[in-house]
Amino acid sequence: MNGANRLDAGDALRRIRDGSLTCAELMRAMLAHIRSREPELKAWAALDESRAMHLAEQADAAPRTSRGPLHGLPLGVKDTYDTADFPTEWGGLHWRGRRPAHDARLVELARKAGAIVMGKTVTTEYALLHPGATRNPHNPAHTPGGSSSGSAAAVAAFMVPLAFGSQTNGSMLRPASYCGVYGVKPTYGLLSRTGLQPIAAEVDTPGLFCRDLEGLAIALETLIGPDPEDPGSLGIRMGGLQDAVRHGPQRRWRVGFCRTPVWGRCDDDARGRMEDFVSRLKGFVEVVDLELPSGFELLHGHHMVLQDAGVAAHLYESAARNPENFSVSLSENIRRGHALTQSRIAEARQFQSWAQASMDKVFDSLDVTVGLAATGEAPATLAMTGDPVMQTIWTFTGAPALSVPALTGARGLPIGVQVNARRLGDADVLGFAAFLEHAGLVVRSR
Question: Is 358 designated active site?
Fold first, then answer.
């Protein structure tokens, strides 16, 4: 089917179910489009076209009674998730040729639900700062963001309708904002991390990119669940997300506009466009200005302690043996983390507990907050992936975060609006995003 690659996940799943589209037709369209755009965008670290087509044909032959909720849906997997059929190299020279024996738990769940893993998408080195090869699909001279660079770019460029990412600081929402797609970091502990590259156990969170809320809700309901092998797992399932998307436009919302203590680090253009967005939003719902409790200005320093400590714990010995395999920026992360004292790490963990409890109280009088998902448009460089500062608070506190493609900057590039809710309020962020779509405040994928 010509143009089938432009179908959003929800539409593609519906057409596969009703028989108006075959899995093979969808995959064929995806692969043809990838061949045309991949030389410029470089979103894929590994791709097996013949295997993807074979799996799509097998999916078409599967009895309808045995089909799962993601049946036939092409999926991109960030190269930080273990996959038994593709290398998992974590974006760095040190892990070249790494071949896991098993799929990560989320990859396993997605396959069981019928998704077809097309390949691995590019990540920055060890999912941190040193950029990979991927370019922004809206302007290849600009960064796509990181570390989930390839996943965000592939979804935005209509190469795949759904892709896995992960966030330890700003690795989901920043590329979602820069590339103009939905990117969700669910409540910490809802999605399994077994088989996901570890950075900092206190904040590592899997996430998803998608161009539509329906597909995002279906995928999250399918994948959220307990994992006894993940010590951070909350051990719960979560239904009602598709209902939240359907009923969000009719709900009365209590909204806080949260600039955060780092508002001054955002571009003037982005701040102005966010203020205009909030002014338009006030025509639909009541919006109050929200100031976070005193002490949140210290949060970013504590977050970096946990992140650097985790990096050093995992990589110090490898970097000491083979320093030539590590970039300057990653080596600096390792050096800082190794220099930290146990008392400083304990202090950061104690602050995290305070911040989580304080954030929960913020939502006693609000359903959601809105703010910028990034400091502005994607920077005009491929040597860096942008500033993650607008996501740090929500990663550190474990709250759900969703980048909504709602703004366009002065250079014509996307800027995301970040929607947040209390921990386990994932239905609220999806429902409010559906409200924004219904109100005409979302910029659809181009």
Answer: no
